[in-house]
Amino acid sequence: MKIVVIGGSGLIGKKLVNNLRQLGHEVLAASPSLGVNTITGEGLAEALSGAQVVVDVSNAPSWEDQAVLDFFVTSNTNLLAAEATAGVSHHVALSVVGTERLLQSGYFRAKMAQEELIQNSKVPYTIVRATQFFEFIGGIADVATVGDTVRLPSALMQPIVSDDVAAALADFTLASPVNGIVDVAGPDQIRMDELVRQYFKATQDKRQVVTDPNAVYYGSVEVNDQSLVPTGSNPRITTTHLNDWLKRTIVHA
Fold first, then answer.
1. Which residues, if any, are the signal sequence (predicted)?
2. Residue 253: pLDDT over 60
């Protein structure tokens, strides 16, 4: 079948496009750099012509509160309308585990707005919420760094490697719409401060991680042990452990 991947030139998009092509499907990678813009509408109708499934793994270029909200609302309004016109039978979107528990952040308020637009659309859908990616551990640390000290809460996480996210998305893309939300997470729960400590040890980063119950996630969000882990029924649990990813990453660094 023909599948369009919005955000097909990004971290997850490239992996997903490759996975689906290997399975024999006609896959169009769509992004502004590839001539398809969901904000302006440029190339959108042409890209969706004849498509059975659209997968949206795009992300906002700016995370400023109003900018990120404008991006997700405008992009999804245009995309869902174009899908309805083109007769697309399944919309798959990548979102974030715990979105409704992280609404102190403008980014997660924007993701919630995206999910609501999808749920209110006439296009059958599957929303795939993933936990934090291994690849972004360094970014979590950087945001929390002052000098050589990294202050982090001890909230539980259940991080996942991007390869496993792409594999899960491929499976949901080829399945029937669930018209609901599914969670995808890595195999192990770990506390945020310990996650970064292990990452620093593996990468020989000399910064010191200090456990601070008043510290926030990504500079603005208060979190607890339920905020960043799957809490719904039957989450999909993947197989790549942190240590395996760290060994692979350090070897190839």
1. none
2. no
